[in-house]
Design brief:
Length: 328
């Protein structure tokens, strides 16, 4: 068994999954914006973080927090600065105080709150900060940031579930079958060389910083940014099967193996074909749900491994004296 062949297969699969994941990310962004998923999740997280109704009533008067605590305030924003939240929380609990005794007034108000997890946490922060208002605001801001990050994990898990179902729809719509892809990459050397060459090109032209930058942009901004061209080109390649990915079995054109008989004589060919294809779609959807950052990182690692084993022929300049590659 030639290890180089399997490394090349891994590069090809990672490349397809990366392109499909980026495509699903675009769809996710539209869905999240349409349904305001981030704003709703942040609203739920803030209500869970600040469970005390009296404190929420105080904070409701702030324009920055009113959309989160007032149902009539309209669409909730998708982000709030933890430092602003800390200033509003400490200031709200110290209403009526002067600049010199804000911390003491906030502490007195906290002591009068009903027993709750919020009260205990704020009392602990006051004890840590002492009499310094700035130290109290910093401590509350750091606590809020950590807490919102943990509570935001629910949104990430929810989005991953959405990604799986959207990924399954994309896998079926574009007919991206992991089983058939793996077979084609393993058997066809030209297909492997083309995908490996494209994988090397993308990893060499896109740094981790550039990838993170492109992922943070809206689809329109991403298309306009020349630094993101390799990634947007990969998405187009997966959708349209350009020259680099044109030999991959993606899409709904008839394939030679569609008419082959089932390996199991007792199983009708159509049942075998569609059962295998359905499993391939599910595997693709599961892979896509891992997210584009996962596949970009893995693609870089596998390409680096391939460089250590010897550069793919498609990425080299031809040399007359070079012996033929042992990869098949």
């Amino acid at each position: 068994m030639n290890l180089t062949v399997w490394v090349d297969v891994a590069i090809g699969l990672s490349l397809v999954y990366l392109g499909a994941s980026l495509f699903v990310t675009v769809i996710n962004e539209y869905v999240a914006q349409l349904l305001n998923l981030r704003g709703k999740q942040l609203c739920d997280s803030l209500k869970e973080l600040i469970a005390d109704a009296d404190v929420r009533e105080l904070l409701k008067h702030s324009p920055a927090l009113k959309p989160f605590f007032d149902a009539q305030a309209g669409r909730a924003p998708s982000y709030i600065d933890p430092n602003i939240l800390a200033h509003l929380l400490v200031g709200g609990l110290a209403i009526g105080s002067t600049a010199g005794d804000t911390c003491r007034r906030a502490s007195d108000t906290i002591d009068k709150l009903p027993d709750s997890a919020l009260k205990k946490q704020l009392q602990a922060l006051v004890a840590t900060a002492g009499s310094s208002t700035d130290a109290l605001v910093t401590a509350v801001g750091e606590w809020a940031d950590r807490s919102l990050t943990v509570l935001g994990g629910k949104y990430k898990r929810y989005l991953q579930t959405i990604s799986f179902w959207i990924g399954l729809a994309v896998a079926i719509g574009l007919n991206i079958d992991t089983i058939t892809l793996t077979e084609q990459l393993y058997r066809d050397r030209d297909t492997r060389d083309a995908t490996v060459s494209l994988g090397v090109q993308i990893t060499e032209s896109t740094s981790q910083k550039t990838f993170n930058h492109c992922l943070s942009l809206t689809p329109q901004q991403r298309k306009a940014d020349t630094a993101c061209a390799p990634l947007t080109g990969l998405v187009d390649a997966v959708q349209g099967r350009n020259d680099s990915l044109g030999k991959l079995p993606i899409g709904w054109s008839e394939r030679p193996d569609d008419k082959e008989s089932s390996p199991a004589s007792w199983l009708p060919p159509a049942v075998w074909r569609w059962g295998s294809r359905g499993l391939g779609w599910v595997l693709t959807a599961l892979a896509i749900s891992l997210g584009a950052p996962f596949w970009f990182d893995l693609l870089n690692k596998v390409v680096n491994l391939r460089h250590g084993m010897g550069k793919p022929e498609a990425a080299k300049k031809p040399e007359a004296d070079r012996p033929a590659s042992s990869a098949s």
